[in-house]
């Protein structure tokens, strides 16, 4: 594509480096920015620069944070005896939005994937173990919930962490796999359906 | 959605103001920016700020330009006797990329649309007429090609401009409507097909 201006060309090439945005979309966004008042791009660029320069990660759970330790780890009403291990930051957001969990988190920053060259050392697994040790005296961790993807990599990571935690005598659980609420039986894949039968739970009339 | 950090919240809300980008995509882009080296967001924000502060519009054809007058209007090898009228800047890019047109352009900045409150005064129609007048002595414009969308608004605008130009005795043409190259007859909508029969052209064996 030939651009009438170097400025357009630069903006398009920078914007199209973002994931899921191609040259055509980048051009559409660029022209949109030009049509908006100048404050629009100003607030946008300020938000992006600030994001990158001022962001911090919680030194306990590795979640995004405005301070040294995040608001979840500092939360007075959180249950410190339970840690939910997740792959990445969006997972924390997703679980928080369910309002069904009141414990702490631990963000691994990925899962073990030999193909991509990600071993246990690249993840925050050692940090999880030392965190559990340091909490031992005042707030002992009783349960670790593994909330990783139901993929081979996720399962490998779960297995690896479980083995480490069993040595410490900590209860390890994993989130339930099964048919989604509202999902129809006949359209569920057989692996999920099979697993949901094997891991059936008692039906309680409450 | 609850965000763990004000910085994330600001970035997501700013990015999601862009067209076609919702909250979820904005969050994905924000987290991507965080994962990249700092130079990534730096070059991105610089390109966007520069774009908005340094961009200029050609005072002749209203296309985007790095200078006062754009490279097409200044082009020594362009045919000054033909002006192609388009709706917006992407249309200039699209026609330029065909390499089939060697004349000048005129960017209207939209089409007449009473529903959206866009009348002929909001568009660069007066500027087109005065441009033709000022070129009269040295480079008289002989033909104006209307390359507007084949919509009701586009047709209204074409009609309005044609009436103004006919007063000046300038030849007005419009780009051909018909079946796209490679398009199959049976899948073409009847309006296009009907129009392509009415506006059939002589078949030349060259």
Explained architecture:
The structure is a homodimer of 206-residue chains. Chain A has helices at residues 6-15, 23-35, 38-54, 71-74, 89-98, 125-135, 152-167, 190-198; strands at residues 56-57, 64-65, 79-86, 103-107, 143-147, 171-174. Chain A has 206 residues and is an alpha/beta fold. In chain A, the strands form two sheets. The first copy, chain A, has a four-stranded parallel beta sheet with strand order 4-3-5-6. In chain A, helix 5 (89-98) links the parallel strand 3 (79-86) and strand 4. The termini of chain A are far apart. The model of chain A has no long low-confidence stretch (mean pLDDT 88).
What is the CATH fold-level name of the largest domain in chain A? Dna Topoisomerase Vi A Subunit, Chain: A, domain 2
Q: Please, how many helices of chain A?
A: 8
Report the largest inter-chain contact. Answer: A-B, 56 and 56 residues
Q: Class of the largest domain in chain A in CATH?
A: Alpha Beta
Gyration radius of chain A, rounded: 22 Å
Shape, per Cα inertia axes of chain A = globular
Tags for this entry?
Dna Topoisomerase Vi A Subunit, Chain: A, domain 2; alpha/beta; four-stranded parallel beta sheet; homodimer; two-stranded antiparallel ribbon; 206 residues
């Amino acid at each position: 594509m030939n651009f009438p201006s170097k400025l357009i060309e630069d903006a398009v090439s920078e914007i199209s480096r973002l994931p899921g945005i191609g040259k055509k979309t980048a051009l559409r966004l660029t022209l949109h920015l030009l049509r908006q008042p100048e404050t629009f791009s100003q607030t946008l660029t300020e938000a992006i620069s600030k994001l990158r320069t001022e962001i911090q990660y919680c030194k306990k759970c590795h979640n995004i944070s405005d301070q040294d330790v995040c608001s979840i780890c500092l939360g007075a009403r959180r249950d410190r005896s339970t840690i939910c291990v997740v792959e990445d930051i969006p997972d924390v957001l997703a679980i928080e939005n369910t309002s069904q969990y009141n414990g702490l988190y631990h963000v691994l920053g990925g899962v073990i994937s030999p193909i991509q060259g990600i071993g246990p050392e690249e993840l925050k697994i050692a940090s999880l173990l030392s965190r559990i040790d340091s909490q031992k005296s005042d707030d002992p961790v009783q349960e670790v919930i593994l909330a990783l993807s139901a993929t081979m990599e996720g399962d490998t990571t779960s297995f690896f962490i479980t083995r480490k935690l069993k040595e410490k005598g900590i209860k390890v659980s994993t989130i339930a796999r099964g048919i989604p609420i509202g999902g129809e039986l006949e359209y569920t894949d057989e692996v999920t359906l099979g697993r949901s039968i094997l891991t059936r739970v008692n039906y309680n009339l409450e």
